[in-house]
């Protein structure tokens, strides 16, 4: 009897202590893996998870991480705050069609590929704050048809084209080095005419030029002819990068610019330039060879002297049969003397008196023959 009375007294407290089934199911769908020193997205998570928090780890969101994330297709919230993400690749969240909140703040993101957000049709909140983003291609926001909040504060964005986000309600842009030139005209006009709210409008200030630093981007007075001007975006961006960015940030922004231009079609002028360079080099090489190595044309211009063979002597004798005196002189000498005589005949010099002086002929022998 006493037991029944005690059970009756404690029954209301037992109802309060029992867990709610609905609350239990929500808890089971949430996974908190913050500050675990993970370098990869864990693969042992329940596939029915809906809220996944991987903040304060060392995840880079590489190909392996992307492949693992695709298996958690029921995710509605994903938090990757303060990790080591530097690039958002194409289709990084392609299979997360139920995702509504994506927070990747306080990473080192400098490059966002055009198809990074493909498949996020239900995404409502996107947080890219405190990264190293320099430029944003507004086409990357096209798949985000239901986006309501876009947070871009604390990056290196100097200009921003109007995004095609028809359901956007709140945008956060402070903490960027805004260039309040004519390039800001379209963004300013969009902020004034659309229903989008610019959060922290009073601190979303101009960084350039110096004379407009006291204005925010929504109320800065721009020139009346800005709508008809076509500013040069490349020159302005490079100017801002050199002045306001550190060396590491500038390198990342330069990589972002080259990625967009490296796939551009090459012209045919390079072929003509290569031909001209090759022609100049070949001509210079031939001139150098002609000046520094004159042996080849010395051989052509000089006469190659050599001793006549015996059969050549006989042939030469036959050609001079009409001159008996010269024939008798040649026949009177030995073959070796004859060879020397014929060598000297090739290099004789005509003197002013018309006579040929040959030092190889012995004058005593001539006197004896006479």
Overall description:
The chain is an alpha/beta fold. The chain has three domains: 85-261, Leucine-rich repeat, LRR (right-handed beta-alpha superhelix) (Alpha-Beta Horseshoe), CATH 3.80.10; 269-301; 310-369, no CATH class. It is built from twelve helices and twelve strands. It has helices spanning 2-17, 21-28, 63-69, 185-193, 233-244, 247-261, 269-292, 295-301, 310-319, 324-332, 335-345, 363-369, and strands spanning 30-32, 51-53, 77-79, 87-88, 101-103, 111-112, 125-127, 149-151, 170-172, 178-179, 197-199, 206-208. The strands form three sheets. Strands 1-2-3-5-7-8-9-11 form an eight-stranded parallel β-sheet. It has a two-stranded parallel sheet with strand order 4-6. Strand 2, helix 3 (63-69) and strand 3 form a beta-alpha-beta unit. It is flat. It is a single-pass type I membrane protein. Keywords: Glycoprotein, Leucine-rich repeat, Membrane, Repeat, Signal, Transmembrane, Transmembrane helix. Residues 176-227 form the LRRCT domain. It is found in: Membrane. This is Leucine-rich repeat-containing protein 19.
């Amino acid at each position: 009897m006493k037991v029944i009375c005690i059970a009756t007294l404690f029954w209301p407290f037992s109802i309060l202590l029992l867990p709610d089934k609905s609350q239990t199911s929500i808890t089971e769908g949430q996974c908190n893996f913050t500050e675990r020193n993970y370098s990869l997205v864990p693969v042992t998570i329940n596939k029915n998870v809906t809220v996944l928090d991987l903040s304060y780890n060392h995840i880079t969101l590489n190909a392996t991480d992307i492949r693992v994330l695709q298996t958690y297709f029921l995710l509605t919230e994903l938090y990757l705050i303060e990790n080591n993400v530097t690039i958002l690749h194409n289709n990084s969240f392609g299979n997360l069609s139920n995702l509504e909140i994506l927070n990747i703040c306080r990473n080192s993101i400098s490059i966002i590929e055009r198809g990074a957000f493909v498949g996020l049709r239900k995404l409502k909140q996107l947080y890219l704050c405190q990264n190293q983003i320099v430029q944003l291609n507004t086409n990357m926001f096209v798949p985000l048809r239901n986006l309501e909040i876009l947070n871009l504060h604390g990056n290196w964005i100097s200009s921003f084209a109007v995004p095609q986000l028809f359901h956007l309600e709140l945008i956060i842009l402070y903490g960027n080095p805004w260039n309040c030139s004519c390039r800001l005209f379209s963004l300013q006009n969009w902020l004034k005419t659309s229903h989008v709210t610019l959060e922290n409008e009073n601190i979303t200030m101009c960084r350039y030029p110096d004379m407009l630093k006291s204005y925010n981007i929504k109320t800065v007075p721009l020139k009346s002819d800005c709508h008809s001007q076509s500013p040069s975006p490349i020159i302005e961006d490079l100017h801002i990068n050199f002045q306001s960015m550190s060396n590491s940030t500038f390198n990342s922004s330069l990589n972002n610019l080259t990625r967009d231009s490296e796939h551009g079609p090459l012209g045919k002028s390079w072929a003509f330039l290569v031909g001209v360079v090759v022609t100049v080099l070949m001509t210079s090489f031939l001139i150098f060879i002609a000046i520094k190595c004159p042996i080849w044309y010395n051989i052509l211009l000089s006469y190659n002297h050599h001793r006549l063979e015996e059969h050549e002597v006989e042939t030469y004798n036959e050609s001079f049969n009409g001159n008996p005196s010269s024939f008798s002189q040649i026949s009177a000498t030995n073959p070796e003397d004859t060879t020397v005589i014929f060598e000297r005949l090739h290099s004789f010099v005509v003197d002013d008196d018309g006579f040929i002086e040959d030092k190889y002929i012995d004058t005593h022998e001539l006197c004896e023959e006479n």
